[in-house]
From TrEMBL:
The keyword Oxidoreductase applies. Residues 132-142 have a biased composition (Acidic residues). One of its GO terms (cellular component) is peroxisomal matrix. It is found in: Mitochondrion intermembrane space; Peroxisome matrix. Keywords: Disulfide bond, Mitochondrion, Oxidoreductase, Peroxisome, Protein transport, Redox-active center, Translocation, Transport. This is Mitochondrial intermembrane space import and assembly protein 40 homolog. InterPro entries: CHCHD4. Residues 1-38, 121-170 are annotated as: Disordered. Coiled coil: none annotated. It comes from Oldenlandia corymbosa var. corymbosa. Transmembrane segments: none annotated. Residues 121-131 have a biased composition (Basic and acidic residues). One of its GO terms (biological process) is protein import into mitochondrial intermembrane space. Residues 26-37 have a biased composition (Polar residues). The lineage of its organism: Eukaryota, Viridiplantae, Streptophyta, Embryophyta, Tracheophyta.
Amino acid sequence: MGQVQSQQTVEEKRDTEDTTQPRPPSSDTTNQDSSLDSLIEEAAAFGEEDEDLSLEEKAKRALECPCIAHLRSGPCGSQFSDAFLCFLKSTAPEKGSDCVQPFVALQNCIKANPSAFSKDILADSETKRDDEDINKEDVEIEREEKPAKQYKIRPPLWSVESKGKQKPKL
């Protein structure tokens, strides 16, 4: 699903929800099914409750969401905050495409501090990458273990000229 369709889906969901009561933010950060994407979506929705606020104010409110408080604290908190604010403030046609530098800084911080984020948040993306790496390694190991069989290729009988009748050479 493209970025535009995602935005339309989120807007349609908001239109169908009861807007008289804002939904309370999730304060349980140990939820097993919480992924980074769902936390970011919840935080972004947290900042958009008041439509009269500027983009800057909405971004600051989203950053104050308790659902991402644990991501803002820790060794990569400032990099996460910078990348998240840039994403929220992004006006590029592909949202966030103008935020490459903050996200590269966040990624470098995560690589330098593997324990910066809890494993359940990063599990989805890491699991996919690990599965792909394992599959590639398995295929390479299988190729190394099994020597290639030597096959003798024989042409079909109809393609071989008979030895009794030879064509005259010109």
